[in-house]
Automatic annotation (TrEMBL):
Domain DUF1232: 54-87
Membrane topology of the entry: Multi-pass membrane protein
Listed transmembrane segments: 50-67, 73-93
Protein localization: Endomembrane system
Keyword Ion transport (UniProt): no
Recorded superkingdom: Bacteria
Pfam family for this entry, one: DUF1232
Entries under InterPro entries matching the protein: DUF1232 (IPR010652)
UniProt-recorded name of the protein: DUF1232 domain-containing protein
Entry keyword set: Membrane, Transmembrane, Transmembrane helix
Keyword DNA damage: no
């Protein structure tokens, strides 16, 4: 597979392919998340992204914690629950970021 068509990500036991447009969407979502935090910090965005802070913090703690539903020692399977947490958090953050994006388009 050509390198310029897809980015190969391994580590979860399988392979996931992100096409170029999906990579751009992911980068845009992360960029908007940091802009949302910045605008909230400076008082421009009044909706509290506290939920987003908590979600990212809990996900980070779960991923780095040695205590998991499926231990990381079990190769392949141990990373599946971490990937699931990332997927769930990503979905929830996209909702919060879409609200920020709507606010940003109005201002």
């Amino acid at each position: 597979m050509r390198k310029n068509r897809a980015l190969m990500l391994g580590g979860t036991g399988g392979k996931m392919m992100l096409k170029k447009k999906d990579r751009k969407k992911a980068i845009n979502t992360v960029t908007l998340f940091f802009k949302m935090i910045r605008d909230w910090k400076h008082g421009r965005y009044h909706r509290s992204p506290f939920k987003a802070f908590v979600l990212v913090g809990v996900a980070f703690l779960y991923i780095v914690s040695p205590i998991d539903f499926i231990p990381d020692v079990i190769l392949g399977l141990g990373l599946i629950d971490d990937a699931a947490v990332i997927g769930i958090i990503w979905t929830l953050l996209k909702k919060e970021i879409s609200l920020y994006e709507q606010w940003q388009s109005l201002n």
